[in-house]
Amino acid sequence: MLTNYTEQYSIIWESCSSQLPGFSKSYVKSEKLRREQTLDQFLETIKSFRKKRIRRIAMNGMDEHLFFENTRAFLRDGLDFADGQLEVMFSAELIEVTKAFVRQARAFDRDLSFTDIFQACRNAWIMNGLQLIMGIPIQLTPSIFAYSMLYPYTDNLLDDPGISGSELLTDQETLKICLAKGGASVLADGYLVAGKLTDAQRYFLFGYGAYLQLLDDIQDVEEDYHAGLMTVFSKDAFQFPLDDKLNKTYWFGEHVMRSLDFFDGRHIELFKSLMRKSMDLFITESIAQNTEAYSRNYITEFETYSPFHFTYICKQKEQFTPYNGFLLAAIEELAFSENSRIEKTTAASVD
Q1: Which of 142, 231, 241, 345 is deepest in the core (most CB within 10 A)?
Q2: DSSP per residue over 238-306, as a string?
Q3: Could you read off the pLDDT tens digit of each residue along the chain, which spans 351 residues?
Q4: What is the pTM of this model?
């Protein structure tokens, strides 16, 4: 099955257009400046919570309310997320999943770094998204927790350049490894969430995972290149422009998203719009942070569709390493606050 899906999606990738993505909204200079001011204000909020975190002070109820209100306002006014999309992202169920995941991860292995916990939690969020489109209540199940926790223990090992093979792979072989890795992971997510899957659902989940893996590789292209890791993008990065490969990835994702119609959850169209919005921003930010990997004309044209100037994104990048995302930086503060509560409670019980 996996081999068959890998072959099918590799053919789809090869057939995808290399034309510029079909983004519908562009931003003039004045709009970018206004949104950058909005982001500056949001970052000041994050910094204030970060100072509390450094002093090991957890958020109280009022802090948490203010935190969510400011984050929602930034996503709405700075990034044009719709109200319905924000309702999903800030649902009580998803917030509780995040808090519960941090609590359980710390209880499972107190030596895990927050970076490791955050990596694992990202997979849990993917599985929560699958619960949404399958009409299953959003919650942190034992299987979701256990499978997500495999990532910091195994994924980093597989990507360690010190133990990677030294074969010289063709572009097609490299692509298939990427598709198989991502596709198999999310296909497993689907089985753990639902137990049983239709043929159509399996097809979508494999493609969805393959797409997410391609996006991860786009974002990590510079890091992978310098580490000697061979991906679809790092293989030729900084030698030939990656314009066409990124364009093909976008249209590949559009093909995958059409397969969402195979599900019968209540929020398919909402989930589809949220995924498109998130992935468009993800791609734009990835280009802004790796401009040397693309042609000058491509950068100029693509920046038109960015809500921020690329120079502004790069300027802000260092504050959020290694997560490279403004929203993820906000989520980091929430999770760290939950972690602080755990440590405070543990210390009190020991005393």
Answers
A1: 231
A2: TTS--HHHHHHHHHHHHHHHHGGGG---TTHHHHHHHHHHHHHHHHHHHHHHTGGGS-HHHHHHHHTT-
A3: 889 999 999 999 999 999 988 787 899 999 999 999 998 888 888 777 767 666 666 667 787 788 888 888 888 998 899 998 888 888 889 888 888 888 888 889 888 877 788 788 888 989 999 998 888 999 999 999 999 998 888 764 445 455 444 458 888 999 999 999 999 999 999 999 999 999 999 999 999 999 999 999 998 899 888 888 889 999 888 989 999 999 999 999 999 998 888 777 677 888 888 888 888 888 888 899 889 999 999 999 999 999 999 988 888 776 654 334 455 555 656 666 665 565 555 555 545
A4: 0.85
- H or E element that contains 180: helix 171-194
| List of E strands, 40-137 | none
Phi, psi of 148 (to 5 degrees): -65, -35
Q: What are phi and psi of 79, to 5 degrees?
A: -125, 0
Tell me what percent of the chain is helix, strand and coil, each rounded to the nearest 5.
75, 0, 25
